[in-house]
Amino acid sequence: MYTSSERQGGPMQKRVGLKTLALKLGMDVSTVSRALRDDPRVKEATRRAVRELADELDYRPNAAARALRMGKSGRVAVLLSPPQQRFASPIFLELLSTLDQHLRDAGLSLAVFAARERAEEVDIVRQIVDERLADAIILGRTRKKDPRVALLLESGMPFVTFGQTDWQERHPMVEIDYAEAGRLAIRALHASASGPIDVLAAPEGLNFADNYVAGACAEAARLGLPEPTLHRIEMTEQAGEDVARKILAPHPQQPAFACIQDSLSFGVYRVAAAAGLIVGRDLTVFGGQNFPGSEHTAPPLSTFSTEDSHVAELLSKVMLRRLAVDGTPVDGTFEHHEIAPKLLLRQSHRLIERAPLTRTG
Fold first, then answer.
1. Under the GO molecular function aspect, what terms does this record hold (predicted)?
2. 21-27 own/partner pairs: CB under 8 Å, 24+ apart
3. Is the bond into 83 cis (omega within 30 degrees of 0)?
């Protein structure tokens, strides 16, 4: 990489380091370093002044030197849980992009690990810890008594979870309120539902899916609806197709589908079309997570948004703040954030009148 002055024939500019920033600001190098890591122990005014000067002088941390000096890898890991499918969850794609940008700004790098099966996730986490492949890790799709979390707590490696755990008082956490998402789905569908609503959710034991089911069942009871029929399946188009095929084959009276993820809804749409059924006339569907293309289905898919950009930004900042603190925070508490899902009512959640036939001639 060449500087602009070097490309134009001028002298190569000397790299700006922490000492230069500290000298110009009249601060200790350690204070400047903490401010650049967004350490909450440094006053906001000081952090702002350091960031402004760093931007002005085009300061870039020397990750290799810091890693060598501190015995760290300079990497943050993200573990992607299965299934890895054609329609990858937008929230994880947004997270990877946003986190990578924040880490590079801090002189760190991103390492992505993808598990093929849930059974191997613990082994991947153990490898990251034992071989020091990263200095911290972000985990999603948390479970009851999650063995990955138990291993990380025992190892002392910093981590942030995207979802609840049984030990959330011992680590930072960001989560979507999936119980509310389940309630939103039932409220959207209940006016058109002629029988029990079919709820399609991820397998039992995944906390976000269990919360979604609990919220859906509670809302159905509150509205005086029959108890929903539960289908705990993988969140893939194929799984959505398989369930929809069984439900739609007998041609029931206008069934309603509440899907925790839009990929499942896409499978329902496909089976309905193959059977000559029309969403919005013969059945209703409510999706989840607002996948790209969901607004372009026919009819447009009603769903909820998980506010992906906001969640990704928040997770990234929580991770960087966790790295800035050695051990347990001074006040003994870790950051916990819960994001409310946003309702996106389009057309697929309601039945429309069949247009009357008109005779010509």
1. DNA-binding transcription factor activity; transcription cis-regulatory region binding
2. 21/50, 21/53, 21/54, 21/57, 21/59, 24/53, 24/57, 25/49, 25/50, 25/53
3. yes
Cα–chain center distance at 201: 16
pLDDT, the chain, mean: 87
Residue 61 is encoded by which pair of tokens?
Answer: 């941390």
Range of the domain at 286: 178-305
* Residue (of 339, 343, 321) closest to 330 by Cα position: 321
**Structural domain tally of the chain?**
3
CA distance 267 to 179: 23
The CATH number linked to 163 is: 3.40.50.2300
* 156: pLDDT strictly greater than 90: yes
What average pLDDT does this structure show over 321-350? 88
Cα 140 to Cα 142: distance, rounded to the nearest angstrom:
6
Question: Are 145 and 182 contained in the same domain?
Answer: no
On the question of a cis peptide bond just before residue 299, with omega within 30 degrees of 0, the verdict is: yes
Quick one: 301 and 182 in the same domain? yes
Q: How far apart are CA 27 and CA 19, in angstroms?
A: 9
The answer on pLDDT for 154 being more than 80 is yes
Do residues 75 and 109 make contact, with C-beta atoms less than 8 angstroms apart? yes
Do 316 and 299 belong to one domain?
A: no
Report the relative pairing of strands 173-176 and 336-339 from DSSP bridges: parallel
Instruction: Note whether residue 120 is domain-resident.
Output: yes
Q: Residue 224 CB: number of other CB atoms within 10 A?
A: 7
| Rounded mean pLDDT, 137-148 | 94
Answer whether 0.90 is exceeded by the pTM: no
Chain segment 219-228, per-residue pLDDT in tens = 999 999 999 9
- Listed ranges 38-52, 192-206, 229-243; the one with the highest mean pLDDT: 229-243
Same domain, residue pair 79 and 130: yes
Give the model's pLDDT for residue 253.
82
CA distance 63 to 168: 31
In a domain, 52, yes or no: yes
Please name the helix (run of DSSP H) or strand (run of DSSP E) that holds residue 175, with its range, or none. strand 173-176
- Across 44-48, 130-134, 256-260, the highest mean pLDDT is recorded for 256-260
Asked whether residue 26 is domain-assigned, the answer is: yes
Average pLDDT over residues 274-303: 95
Cα-trace Rg, the chain: 25
End-to-end CA distance of the chain: 76
